[in-house]
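Please decode residue identities from the backbone states below.
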């Protein structure tokens, strides 16, 4: 009797092992046999937020920097990452999709690998702040044609992306510095866009407790614009809300003005132009739901930053491909700006003088 039970037990174990091997083979066969590029263009865009041509181009751009370390092909890794950033789903639902069929650890490694490659190699190409005369002039012309504002090279704003709290023993990323004013852990991302919602600068290095104005003060963009101003370019500036300091190269609205005054016209004109950054941020978070305020990036800050940078690259790729996002999917934020530290100093004084000169030259009737 004991021998019979032993053999039955061994038989059951062997059958279970065969079932596991069968499932492993089936997953791989399923993964390799389904060609997602044969789906309709509409379904493809819904899954990946890009069209097929753009995805093939993305794979080709990543290819030279990719080192194959396993049996999963590059195109499947790219599609897995795109599906994750598009849906904002946790890794298990992504990995269990019929065309992916990957384990959760595999999906996690893939997302880290592909977003690292995009951030390191594609970000400098796809997200560039303009420095040559022709590109700067084209951007300024775009703002003038749409909103009749002169000299505007872009609009800057900060937006928060909620993340997983870092470990309490992380000395380089202490959790408390990532707590924003809403009590959540986040990265405060500085974005700059042109008049067509193209992202021309992105900074995802700073934790949620750091104010927009502080991030701006440490920005290479500010350093560049100040140097250009000191070298004689007095007619180029960004637009920012009241959370930023007024500077000769960064115009902010008036906090006090009389009705019907040139200052009121300045505020109305620039508020209209400033809305483009709100729309840019809304399209970015609406297209790539992993950044949505209804989601949390369950990653360490350094990995979360790579995902954010990758989404900015993909945003510009989608823009170049003219892939529209339905208006109802655009996520307009409910964040409320906070006044920056507008300490009176030489830069602020020069900023006020430059803004006043702009009004005299353009808005006085």
């Amino acid at each position: 009797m004991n021998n019979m039970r032993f053999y039955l037990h061994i038989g059951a174990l062997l059958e279970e092992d065969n079932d596991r091997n069968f499932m492993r083979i089936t997953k791989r066969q399923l993964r390799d046999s389904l060609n997602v590029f044969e789906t309709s263009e509409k379904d493809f865009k819904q899954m990946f937020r890009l069209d097929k041509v753009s995805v093939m181009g993305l794979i080709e751009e990543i290819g030279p920097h990719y080192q194959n370390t396993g049996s999963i092909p590059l195109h499947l890794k790219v599609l897995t990452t795109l599906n994750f950033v598009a849906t904002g789903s946790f890794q298990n639902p992504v990995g269990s999709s019929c065309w992916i069929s990957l384990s959760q650890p595999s999906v996690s490694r893939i997302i880290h690998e592909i977003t690292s490659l995009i951030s390191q190699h594609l970000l400098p190409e796809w997200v560039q702040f303009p420095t040559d005369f022709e590109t700067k002039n084209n951007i300024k012309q775009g703002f003038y044609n749409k909103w009749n504002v002169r000299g505007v090279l872009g609009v800057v704003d900060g937006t928060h992306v909620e993340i997983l709290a870092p470990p309490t023993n992380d000395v380089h990323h202490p959790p408390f510095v990532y707590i924003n004013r809403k009590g959540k852990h986040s990265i405060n991302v500085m974005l700059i866009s042109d008049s067509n919602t193209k992202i021309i600068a992105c900074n995802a290095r700073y934790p949620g407790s750091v104010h927009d104005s502080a991030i701006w003060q440490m920005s290479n963009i500010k350093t560049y614009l100040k140097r250009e101003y000191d070298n004689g370019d007095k007619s180029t500036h960004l637009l920012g809300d009241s959370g930023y300091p007024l500077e000769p190269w960064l115009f902010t609205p008036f906090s006090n003005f009389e009705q019907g005054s040139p200052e009121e016209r300045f505020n109305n004109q620039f508020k209209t132009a400033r809305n483009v950054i709100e729309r840019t941020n809304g399209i970015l978070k609406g297209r790539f739901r992993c950044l949505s305020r209804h989601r949390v990036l369950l990653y360490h800050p350094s990995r979360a930053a790579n995902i954010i940078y990758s989404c900015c690259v993909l945003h510009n790729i989608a823009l170049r491909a003219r892939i529209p996002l339905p208006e109802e999917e655009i996520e307009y934020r409910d964040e409320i700006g906070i006044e920056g530290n507008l300490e009176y100093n030489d830069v602020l004084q020069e900023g006020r003088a430059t803004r006043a000169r702009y009004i005299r030259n353009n808005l006085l009737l």
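Observation: The longest strand covers residues 152-162.
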